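Hello,

Our lab assistant flagged a job as stuck in the queue for most of the afternoon. It eventually completed. Since we weren't sure the result was trustworthy after the delay, we are filing this so someone can double-check. Below is the sequence as submitted and the structure that was eventually returned. Let us know if re-running is recommended.
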Amino acid sequence: MTDYAVSKNPANGEILARYPMQSLTELENTLDASAAAFKQWRETDMASRVKVLRQLAEQLRQREPELSRTITLEMGKPLAQARAEILKCASLSDWYAEHGPAMLEDQPTQVPDAWQRFKPVGTILAVMPWNFPFWQVLRGAVGMLLAGNTYVLKHAPNVMGCATLMAELFDATDLPKGAFASVNVDNDGVSAAIKDPRIAAVAVTGSVRAGSAIAAQAGA
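-- returned structure --
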């Protein structure tokens, strides 16, 4: 087991920061907080959820220079592309705030008097890659949160600075504490989270090896 996730500038090898790996006890506390937040968030009215997405979009735009610079320093993307990624995330939040509620309304079926209803399932564990450190996370998290779920992010170890900033962005909104959380755990920690009954679903983007391992555990 490694003791730290290391953020390193790929352009010159400079170590930017070391983020201590969290223990299983710390992971347990995060899952407790997420489960508690879910009980509140699932009952929150749609207008309040939309407000959180609008607040997130505002935070992304206000802090764009800092967020973009962190992307560039941690994973080497040209600054112009990093800025485009952040602004795209802000547009995403606004789009879901505008169109998401209609997508979540009860839908009629071909069977008379039968309707399809969308209900939140619980806490989503997301294992995400480094190459689009904000977009890859938020394109899933925004919709999941709007639907009333909570979200635990396990980001790639080389972009933990971006993960930390995303948690700060949500902390600055009216989202209940714990409804969005970032964890810094190793493979054993991911396995423990997948097995935990408080995790309702797992989302993953990454290598074939990682996807196969996570799918096998989630399927079991």
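-- support follow-up --
The delay was a queue issue, not a problem with the job. The result is valid. The longest strand covers residues 15-20. The chain is about 55% helix and 15% strand.
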